[in-house]
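Quick start: read one record
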Amino acid sequence: MNLLLFLAGLAALVVGANLLVRGAGQLALSFGISPLVVGLTIVAFGTSAPEVAVSVGAVLEGQTDIATGNVVGSNIFNVLFILGASALITPLVVNVQLIRQEVPIMIGASVLLLALGLDDRIAMLEGALLFSLLLAYTAFLIVQSRRASRAANDEFAAENRPAAPGAWDAKLPVQLALIAAGLAALVLGSDWLVTAAVQIAKSMGVSDLVIGLTIVAAGTSMPEVATSITAALKGERDIAVGNVVGSNTFNILGCVGLSGLAAGTGGLGVAPSLLTFDIWVMLAVALACLPVFVTGREIARWEGGVFLAYYAAYVAYLILAAQQHDALPAFSTAMLSFVLPITIVTLVVVLLRRKAPA
């Protein structure tokens, strides 16, 4: 029964995000708002809406470990699994703006989350700070988009056209209904997902944090999975990468910010294991994007394979640690002493070769 409730909640989150994006996107385009702004704001919010709904819902139900674990786990999942799977489909093009601007902002947000959580809590004022930074970031993107070339706007407009006059979603009442239905589905889906995840965790003897880092994180990232893999299949390789990077920044500033505000004066608790391991993994994954992206400004298939392998290793570590398995010390030693150094050396060599003059 809990599994069915979990799947129903996941389905409601995906449907709700799609309805919200459709309604809000068409509403904005109908009012003449730049298609590029719609993509950078409304669509980015839509794909991250499940994370917001689940994290805030978990806080209101007293499951703060799921709230924080969901954000950290989603960011790790987005880079390692989604970009890895998308790159295996086709090598992904990396826009130079992502390298110069969006990835550094994502890294900065990750460092800020680590710094704010060092006292084991995200206070309400700190949550307000994060959310204020999201508003400032959105305003910056809007201002920046006004200076964008007509070609950039036209390129995005090809993927997000306003509804034709006779289309079913061209009328204002329909667009408002889509937004309302999307928000309702997100709220309902998040409640089902959190309730089922907590019950599953208790029945399996697994902590809320591990469930949040894995099952809930992967579940709430389904819109990003669908968007990036579909974009890769259609050859829109820059969209596949931009969606992940933008969503990660929004998850930290928006999800954690709103969750901190929802937690009230008591603040949003940050589990010690997050501070000693998982947030560092999230930060390392964000930092790893820079050398991977710079090497030829694309994510090659082999690099996608490395990302997927590391995500499998991360999940395996969480499972072994949760069970206090005897194989955990040997597994950790192998990863730290053999796999990670080889990967770092390989990335450095590839970077130097591609930077070397012909």
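The chain has one domain: 2-355.
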